[in-house]
Design brief:
The complex is a heterodimer of chains A (110) and B (117).
Chain A lengths: L3 E3 L2 E5 L4 E7 L6 E7 L5 E8 L4 E4 L2 E6 L4 E6 L8 E8 L5 E3 L3 E6 L1
Parallel strand pairs in A: 2-11
Antiparallel strand pairs in A: 1-3, 3-8, 4-5, 4-9, 6-7, 7-8, 9-10, 9-11
Chain B lengths: L3 E4 L2 E4 L5 E7 L5 E8 L3 E10 L2 E4 L6 E7 L2 E6 L8 E8 L12 E2 L3 E5 L1
Parallel strand pairs in B: 2-11
Antiparallel strand pairs in B: 1-3, 3-8, 4-5, 4-9, 5-6, 7-8, 9-10, 9-11
Chain lengths: 110, 117
């Protein structure tokens, strides 16, 4: 089946930029998503990018997509302690179903 | 998302017991999903339903069953719970859309934490 991979953990200092990376295998992906999960909560959609785009910026968030390498990244500028959470990458592939990565836990140190 | 609610939020049960997790949504979406989350494995799809008369198995349906009682309600049952079904369970909904895209963005409930002893 299709696969989505993420590193498990990232630690940054408050005010720095965070970059969370994701790789996927499905070349037919249409949309790619970033979800945020705060402790005790469900998944909240952060942003998405269509597969024919290279970049999307939304306030402090920048999504970069390298379709050739099947690599997706999420950059959070000026990271705050409130950004501490688990971030999931997901791709929409065949049958319009989502495949999720394992999640990256972002820890922001004051 | 308050539009998608799950009950119970936490549940402890014993091996062999039957248990039902319930999901309700007020978003008016046709499509509903059940996922389980295990640490480091992300979310894996158990079952999904594109409308009231449509039920489909996901990646890991063994040991689970579902019922779509109405457009707004989708319940997940564990017929005979076992310890490796201990996990966080999420319900999600999405709107009927065109061929993929933001129209099919999935909205998640807060999750049900299940412990099987």
């Amino acid at each position: 089946g299709e696969d989505v991979e993420q590193s498990l953990f990232l630690s940054v200092r408050e005010g720095d930029s965070s970059v969370i990376n994701c790789t996927y295998t499905d070349s037919s992906s249409t949309y790619l998503y970033w979800y945020k999960q705060e402790p005790g909560a469900g998944l909240q959609l952060l942003t998405y990018i269509f597969s024919n785009m290279d970049m999307k910026q939304d306030q402090r968030l920048t999504v970069l997509l390298n379709k050739k390498d099947k690599h997706l990244s999420l950059r959070i500028a000026d990271t705050q302690t409130g950004d501490s959470a688990i971030y999931f990458c997901a791709e929409m592939g065949a049958g319009n179903m989502l495949t999720f990565g394992g999640g990256t836990r972002l820890m922001v140190k004051p | 998302d308050a539009d998608v609610t799950q009950t119970p939020r936490n549940r402890i049960t014993k091996t062999g017991k039957r248990i039902m997790l319930e999901c309700s949504q007020t978003k008016g979406h046709d499509r509903m999903y059940w996922y389980r989350q295990d640490p480091g494995l992300g979310l894996r799809l158990i079952y999904y339903s594109f409308d009231v008369k449509d039920i489909n198995k996901g990646e890991i349906s063994d040991g689970y069953s579902v019922s779509r009682q109405a457009q707004a309600k989708f319940s997940l049952s564990l017929e005979s719970a076992i310890p490796n079904q201990t996990a966080l369970y999420f319900c999600a909904t999405s709107d009927r859309g065109t061929s993929g895209g933001v129209w099919e963005t999935q909205y998640f409930g807060p999750g049900t934490r299940l412990l099987v002893l």
